[in-house]
Amino acid sequence: MAKVCMIGLGKTGLEIARYMVNSDKLDLVMAVASPGSSKLGKDLGELLNTRDTGIKVTGGDSLADNLKLFKPDVAVDFTDPKASVKNLEVLAKHKVNTVICTTGFTELQIQRIRAITLANKVGTVIAPNITVGVNVLRFVCEIISGILDDYDVEIIESHHRHKKDSPSATALKIADSILKGQRLEGKKNLVVLDRNITGMRRDKEIGVHAVRAGGIVGIHKVLFVSEEDKLEITHESFNRSIFAKGVEKAINFIIGKKGVYDMDDVLDFKTALESYVLRQAEVN
Q1: Is residue 190 domain-shared with residue 65, that is, in the same domain?
Q2: Which residue range forms the structural domain that includes residue 73?
Q3: Which of 39, 42, 93, 163 is catalytic?
Q4: pTM for this model (two decimals)
Q5: Annotated catalytic, 159?
Q6: pLDDT tens-digit readout, 55-89
């Protein structure tokens, strides 16, 4: 059973912690909040409105000491970009593999995460959206975009009003997958954010629109539109417990591995696609 350290106890982090506390496959041994948080010193059960768990919430500033004490196999980070990079520096030095679910990283921060991981010979999963379903949507969109390569594409993402990054990292990753499917990797100039959209669309341009309202957990909608028809694909998260199932898959994947991975690796889309092609070949 994997021993897990949960870092970041916001709404989503607490939901994932709840899942792990009730799991017979994961052993949650640490719960970490930001230094100065009002949650410090409390039993995790109090924050979850449940029984005492015996897990006392500790601060990120004592992470190194507590890693030595509790010896987790994997850490799950649901904080913010700056804190995630700082946490990874400590985790990697203590040979703890990490699943990073934080969003809003700059390209420089992503490069730093890769460098820390490789230098310390540990394993890291970078998953700006850990939900299995939305990663399947992204994979499917990559395939569709290679088939409907003359269609216009628009991405509309909706989240709660408190989400800090806009558009979501998931929406931008979907756009990257669509460009990849159209063999236009690296053409970031073709991805246009709604706040910068003016006038006519250029060929192959992908519009990305962000909605921030109420308590929306997460909706990602992709439109493939021609003059004659429209294909629409949507993924919607009904509650935050869906994130926990993706986290469990990522934890089980990264144990014992070295290097940097993403949800494509965790869900093994390549094997799924190869299996599909082989089945079709057998039928024909």
Answers
A1: no
A2: 2-126+241-270
A3: 163
A4: 0.85
A5: yes
A6: 999 999 999 999 999 999 999 999 999 999 999 99
